[in-house]
Amino acid sequence: MKKIIIALVVGSLFLTSCGGEMSEKDRFVAASVDLACQIVENPEMQNDLEGALALSMDVFAEYGFDVNDEVAMQSLSDSYQFDEEVIEAVQQGVMDCFGSSF
């Protein structure tokens, strides 16, 4: 599991270092997958709302989002919550984390 998360982070760093910045949509997908994988990997997070919120803020901040701007974060969520491409990419990313066990 940790290898997959490291691969995602290294991959995103590689893309960024090659001059190709990730789009907002790609960063949103990557952050969502990263967060979902960490929460599923740590079942105690599922019952720790404060911890999950802190983790969410940390993960999205790592992907360059201004997590302290509640309006911007709500707008971001609203932009992609019904986007089929985003939903499928996040689902695929989570499946890649856990394979057929998820």
3D structure, described in words:
By secondary structure, the chain is mainly α. The chain has one domain. It is globular. It starts with a helix and ends with a helix.
Topology:
Blueprint: H1 2-17, H2 24-41, H3 49-62, H4 70-80, H5 84-98
Helix pairs in contact: 2-3, 2-5
Q: Oligomeric state of the chains?
A: single chain
What is the average of the pLDDT values? 84
Q: How many domains make up the 3D coordinates? A: 1
**What can be said about the biggest beta sheet?**
none
**General form:** globular
Helical element count? 5
Q: What is the beta-strand fraction? A: under 5%
Report the C-alpha radius of gyration, rounded.
Answer: 14 Å
Low-confidence stretches: 12-19
The separation of the N and C termini measures 13 Å
Helix fraction, binned, reads over 70%
Structural class: mainly alpha
Q: What is the helix/strand order?
A: HHHHH
Number of E-state strands: 0
What tags apply to this protein structure?
73% helix; 5 helices; mainly alpha; single chain; 102 residues
In brief:
This protein is mostly helical and about 100 residues long. It has one domain.
